[in-house]
Amino acid sequence: MASFDLSGRTALVTGSSRGLGRAIVEGLAAAGARVIVNGVDAARIHSAVGELRAAGHNAEGVAFDVTSEASILAAFEKFDADGVRIDILVNNAGIQVRKPLVEFSTADWRRVIETNLTSAFVIGREAAKRMIARGHGKIINIGSLGSEMARPTVGPYTAAKGGVRNLTRAMAVEWAQHGIQANAIGPGYMLTDMNQALIENAEFNSWLMSRIPSKRWGKPDELVGAAVFLASPASDYVNGQIIYVDGGMSAAM
Ligand code: NDP
User: Could you report the per-residue pLDDT of 100-122, keeping only the tens digit for each?
Assistant: First the structure.
């Protein structure tokens, strides 16, 4: 399984203090990577790093808001100063705001687009500049079923995740020649804090179970296989793709 081995690689996963990002850092660390946990809440990062280290993993944390370009630039300058090379970037941090489009304020629209889409461009650009200089790198953007399809009340999120899908393609066509693979994962409905209101909503659950071939919610650690694949040499000729990990939902009519 050497082609899935991440030993000697360093992975930055945004929004990895909890939820899907947290499962992804655990998976990348178990495959041998040194992982850098990110989020806004420093206490959550601290406890995630503590738990990863207690499990024998090589982990550290860096708090920054993915919507703050100044903080992103400062984080990368510190990586440079400390000799930290980001070989694997997972653009995972994201938020959801649910409202009908006619009730969405422009400020909320911008907040969703900046957190879910613009952050992936800015952090991706900073990581890629350094990856290009080294001649290799892996970028994994977290999309969604919303990268392809829409549901009422999540318009800005759908626009952002459609953008993530095409940003991934844009990264791939410009950076493949430099040894970088940029791909995306499209999770289906997963059991995380982001979905707490839906998980508790009986009507939504009954709609979901009628639609989803696997007849169940996804668990965060079910993304690990795709993440390790896309972070590892096993995917060195895979570029610009989005892999859906969704219990078959995007395949069903
Ligand atoms: P959670 O709400 O459970 O976790 C969000 C994570 O992102 C936290 O670590 C949070 O940090 C961090 N975060 C949020 N805003 C920022 C910010 N501005 N700067 C830095 N970190 C931030 O979300 P999920 O794990 O469910 O979602 C993760 C990704 O997966 C998102 O991109 C989401 O759109 C996507 N996704 C999720 C699906 C699902 O069913 N859950 C389905 C499809 C896609 P903190 O703890 O500091 O707040």
Answer: 999 999 999 999 999 999 999 99
For the stretch 150-181, pLDDT in tens is 999 999 999 999 999 999 999 999 999 999 99
Which string of DSSP letters, residue by residue, matches 122-181? HHHHHHHHHHHHHT-EEEEEE--GGGT---TT-HHHHHHHHHHHHHHHHHHHHHGGGTEE
Q: Exposed, middle or buried: residue 200 (CB in 10 Å: 0-12, 13-18, 19+)?
A: exposed
Q: Which residue in 8, 6, 12 sits closest to 141, CA to CA? A: 12
CB atoms inside a 10 Å sphere around CB 251: 9
The CB of 147 under 6 Å from ligand 1? The reply is no
Closest residue by Cα to residue 161 from 131, 129, 194, 208: 194
* 18 touches ligand 1 (CB under 6 Å): yes
C-alpha separations of 233 from 2, 239, 252 in Å = 9, 12, 31
Q: Which of 45, 151, 194 to mutate to test the pocket of ligand 1 (most atoms within 8 A of CB)?
A: 194
Known active-site residue 237? no
pTM over the 0.90 mark: yes
- 37 by DSSP, 3-state: which? strand
State which CATH number among 1.10.8.100, 3.40.50.720, 3.60.21.10, 3.40.50.300 fits the domain covering 2-244: 3.40.50.720
Q: Token pair for residue 226?
A: 């795709």
Q: At what angle do helices 155-175 and 106-113 cross, to 10 degrees?
A: 30
